[in-house]
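User: We ran a pulldown and think these components assemble together. Before we commit to crystallization trials, I'd like a predicted model of the whole complex to look at. Sequences follow.
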Amino acid sequence: MEEINIQEMDSEEILELMQEDLYDGYKEEIIAEVKELLDRGMPPYEILTEGLVAGMDIVGVDFRDGILFVPEVLMSAKAMKGGMNVLRPLLAESDAPKQGVVVIGTVKGDIHDIGKNLVAMMLEGAGYEVINIGINNDVESYLEAIEEHQPDILGMSALLTTTMPYMRTVIEALKEEGLRDDLVVLVGGAPLNDAFAEDIQADAYCRDAAVAVDTANKFMKIKRGS
Amino acid sequence: MSALNQLLGASKPILLDGAMGTMLMDAGLESGDPPEEWNLIHPERILEVHRQYIQAGSQVILTNSFGGTSYRLAMHNLQDQVGELNRAAAQLARTEADQAPHLVLVAGSMGPTGQLLEPVGELVFEDAVEAFAEQASGLAAGGVDLFWIETMSDLGEVRAAVEGIRRVSDLPISATLSFDTHKHTMMGVDPLQAVESLEALDLALLGANCGTGSDELIEIIQLMATADPDLPLVAKANAGVPQVEAGEVVYNGTPEVMADYAVRVYQQGARLIGGCCGSTPDHIRAMAEAFNQTD
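Assistant: Here's a predicted model for the assembly, 521 residues in total across the polymer chains.
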């Protein structure tokens, strides 16, 4: 196989190659490409948006359309994370715009975190700061995380018919604490649907990780008033 | 002749049961609490669900052990009671099956660990095998007639479950996947791949359960039947999709809808037919009546 030498490519070509390598889940290649572009003086935010976010957009669309499935998307997300780990400290130093802050976790009694992690990684790939609080979260642990991180968005996930009603419990608690109106609450998980989200007074149900990113972007636009 | 072969011997549809989890929520299980714990603290409620399904006509009932691997029980700090909870699950179903007026088989339900296998996830194959072996050992001790691997999305995890069971038992095994993502499993397995791959395993039955409603499940079974499996096919569809009425989660598939599904999925090649999430004894009774009418 012909060895690709990224040093001989122009930066535009490397950004395009990054999209292909993200699609294929090539983590080491992504890290090398991010470093190469940084060496050439490309601003970290440009690498993030033109390389990683643009690449994950394509992955998200093909996931939504049933061309890619969870294993492929997780490998893409891992590659994206590899690149993000290089960029994150640099982005924090720079005055690059942040999309928003998200606290995300699976509800009490539910161990499932595959879809939720995917959403977390895709949101991170789309430029959000994501605090992933894991599985089996009761009301207190959601409230603690909200207090500590002051998120714009709360994401909740449940995969079982026996755990999805717990989302309502959390939303009721948010109301009691006077926090509900400051937060965009997005919910997801296989047994859910729009009607359920509406009934428990979440802001939206997100069918998959790609939809979650689109929905988050939409609500952040409204929140910023643009 | 195994009890399963006795059932399969008659050239008729075999009626399974409906949901356990949603039935237990109706009986007071709080959202987020582990259904398996009720095998020990509320055994009478589990017996009641089994009894209702048998009275409705179920010929195979599933034990209340879907989340009974150490991985899932750990969330509730019950990981040290895998053997006890699974044995109790099997004993409760056994008790009702043995008192039934017709032949009823007890199938030991085994759901996914909730973890992803390497390299996509962190779960080591051998650890998964051991977890399933531990669960199967409890179910076998409680007297199941067969094992029932269900709602799987990863073929590797099915292999781990089969391997785990075979370390402790020679009883027949059924495996069903949940095709809930564009007619694939979450992990991207389509019905044809599933048949090809699962037929190589030591299974007695294979099929589909849960997913996104009965119409799509009928299509999945049709595809599996087209692949001409040597094994009898299992269909266990949800009673429609969840909706919220007066604050409660209810499924929109009526008993009539499920009776219609049962007849149609039988015509498409399923041999063992029942319901998944949202299905109640009323749904199973309607299915039994529909089969009697088409005899």
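The longest strand of chain B covers residues 146-152. That may be worth checking against your pulldown data before setting up trials.

User: Thanks, that helps.
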